[in-house]
Design goal:
mainly beta, elongated, six-stranded mixed sheet, single chain, four-stranded parallel sheet
């Protein structure tokens, strides 16, 4: 079933630091919003799968792999919503999306006639959003922390609360702690005795 199901015209939940992954459902594998509103902050919704379904007597990938938005309002910031099948966010009828500082790939739209558009141009598509490989540490084994090379580091909303390491907010549920990285060569002039991982900066 869906990783999260919200069904209410009066609901306005906030999902913060939430990880939703590896769910299967034809009604919003990651999240199904039926009317109402949801605000997604610093969360990760990935690897959710919607199976094939019949539309106009034709089997197609049933839309709504990541989020299925049925006449509701989705607001997302500092979040990763990618690598869901067959799409990341699906609007049915008049749903809306306000996304900023997030990593999102495929946004689609459909209607009661079975029309499906997986190249839907959504409002706000250029508000500091990116569409890149998130570079998780080990997603196959459920580790969705970010690698040091991830494009999601330090690119969140600069007006958001800073990450625990004092840097600009990262995208996703897990902040990358840059305090763990530094030069670990005790003979180098920039040796960092508190570093846990060597970042190749030794001189």
């Amino acid at each position: 079933g869906s990783g999260c199901f919200i069904n209410s015209t009066n609901a306005s939940p906030i999902l913060e630091r939430v990880l939703i992954h590896d769910n299967q459902s034809s009604n919003g594998a990651g999240l199904f919003l039926f009317q109402g509103e949801v605000n997604i902050i610093n969360s990760t919704i990935v690897n959710n799968v919607s199976p094939d379904c019949s539309v106009n007597d034709e089997m197609i990938p049933c839309p709504g792999g990541g989020i299925k938005n049925w006449n509701g309002s989705v607001t997302t910031s500092n979040s990763i919503i990618r690598s869901n099948y067959p799409d990341d966010i699906y609007f049915f009828q008049s749903g809306s999306l306000n996304a900023s500082y997030s990593n999102i790939d495929i946004v689609s739209q459909g209607d009661e006639s079975g029309n499906y558009n997986n190249e839907y141009q959504w409002d706000g598509a250029d508000i500091q959003n990116i569409n890149e490989n998130s570079q998780f540490t080990d997603p196959e084994n459920g580790d969705f922390t970010l690698l040091p090379s991830s494009p999601c580091i330090d690119v969140g909303d600069p007006n958001s609360e800073l990450d625990p390491d004092g840097t600009i907010a990262d995208m996703g549920a897990y902040a990358f702690d840059q305090r763990d990285y530094g030069c670990m060569d005790s003979e180098a002039c920039n040796y960092d005795p508190e570093a846990i991982y060597d970042d190749g900066s030794c001189i």
